[in-house]
Amino acid sequence: MTWLEAVPTINASLNATSGVLILVGFGAIRRGRVATHASLMLAACATSTAFLLSYVCYHAQVGSVHFRGAGAARAFYFTVLASHTALAIALVPLIWRTLRLALRHEFDAHRRLARVTFPVWLYVSVTGVIVYWMLYRL
Known about the structure:
This protein is mainly α.
């Protein structure tokens, strides 16, 4: 396996790691562990940024990868891919704004926006792994 062939697996791992970090970060803030929450969310941001950079570089090299499935699997794949892609695009400014509010200690606004950002980010992380699995493992 070449390094380029390993990139999709690395990207899926970064997506999964982001998902775990935001879930654990959510749990930390629910238990009042603000410093732990902040560290976990910064790690999730770093992991998601690494994913995005890796994803863009990979697809700049290989172009589009076509789904080879058929029937119901194909319909499911494209439904998940469409929602994943649309929400991933919306997620970048959501994360940026949510992080900025926290760093500026505007915690009421941060909390309100995080209630939107969190489920979208979790969905994008999980569906990113599903898209990988269907595209490269089925």
